[in-house]
Amino acid sequence: SAYRLCIMRRLHSVLARTLTSGTSGSPGLPDMSEVRSKLRDIVGASTNWRDHVQAMQERKALHTLLAKQQEDLPPRRMKDSYLEVILPLGSQPEIREKYLNVHNSVRFGRILEDLDSLGVLICYTHTKQEMQHRSPLSIVTALVDKINLCQKIIHPDCDIKFTGNVSWVGKTSMEVKMHMLQLHDGDYSPVLDATFVMVARDPENKRPAFVNPLIPESPKEEEIFKQGELNKLKRIEFSTSSLLKMAPTAEERNIVHDIFLNTLDTRQEGEGTVSFQSRKLPPNSVWMEDAKLKGLQICHPQERNIFNRIFGGFLMRKAFELGWAIACSYGGSRPFIVSVDDIMFQKPVEVGSLLLLSGQVCYTEKNYIQIRVHTEVYNANTREHHTTNIFHFTFISENEVPQVVPKTYGGKYPIKSMLYLDGKRHFTAVMKEM
């Protein structure tokens, strides 16, 4: 089962014991509201929308504090950025409503928002300079590499603890590993592991900026750091072999052709009467074009981040909720999130934008549903569309789901077949990780 994932997460518990440096239990830990408050203080963000222009102008002057080269910055250790944060759903029932869903469990979209905020604060902790009250760096989420869950249900009345630290550093980017645990019978048990990649930019968020190097201090930390390097190489390899750049493999071409043959309507009699257009849906199947939903979001100032762009966690929440709705309607029962992977933040979303979301079931196998959500910004003045994000979600349904089938014609491989193969690749990668 995919939910046995956390049995293999021994490394985290060993590292966490090393990094806590004497911290134990929940008393005195900051909560998520304190995380967001600290972030505002670090960059000097105003809580008033009307003051945001002046606040951003003031940040421009901080560019003189940027390092000219990485070697000018003091190295950091993993424990220097280690943070523990509490989400007191059990001990503070008044905050529970915001996190509650109709099934009386925790809204996973809210957890995505919290992970995004925590990841940014961890990176600011790694790059903090003693003499600087405000950071000259604009640290933003570049990629959600993966989030793997080992619990189906997140309980709404038990405290949650997030832990995390910087696990790998390049010149201008940082990988952050985060873990979420929930309190049961006096002990915290694992719920999910997350890997985010953050990038540092100048105060105006226009050019890359150098960050402090990371020095592993033990064999375990060396192993974690090496895994960060491997993750980077895997991302490059995955991107290089993308179907947007390279043709499908021979095996993938055979898969698409087999689907085509299985959906060919051969009931017509007479030589030459069967055409590429003659299609029939196999039993217990759904055409891909009938397995999608769309949404629209007006991006109000309330959803802005500390840099007065739309908060990445909010975008993740809205995309997840659309993906969940698609999985729910497709499978005919309540779906559970298994994995989130390869979320690329391609373009920031400005306040006031019209955000168009388009979700699609792109692959199914037994009880699993692989969903892709594409988001784009529509500019009403220029009538142009620009892609901002692509999200990949793996859900598991309570029952076996119909097979999703792309329509293909002849020897061509149109968009639905490419989406199907891309979905299969993501699903295979997730199952391998499990």
UniProtKB/TrEMBL annotation:
InterPro entries recorded: HOTDOG_ACOT, HotDog_dom_sf, Thioestr_dom
Keyword Transit peptide: yes
Main location: mitochondrion
GO cellular component, one term: mitochondrion
Domain HotDog ACOT-type: start-end pairs: 81-204, 289-401
Gene Ontology biological process terms, A to Z: acyl-CoA metabolic process
UniProt KW keywords: Hydrolase, Mitochondrion, Repeat, Serine esterase, Transit peptide
Record-level Gene Ontology MF annotations: carboxylic ester hydrolase activity; fatty acyl-CoA hydrolase activity
Compartment(s) of residence: Mitochondrion
Top-level taxon in the UniProt lineage: Eukaryota
SUPFAM superfamilies: Thioesterase/thiol ester dehydrase-isomerase
Family statement: Belongs to the acyl coenzyme A hydrolase family.
Protein name in UniProt: ACOT9 thioesterase
Species for this entry: Melanocharis versteri (Fan-tailed berrypecker)
Lineage of the species this protein comes from: Eukaryota, Metazoa, Chordata, Craniata, Vertebrata
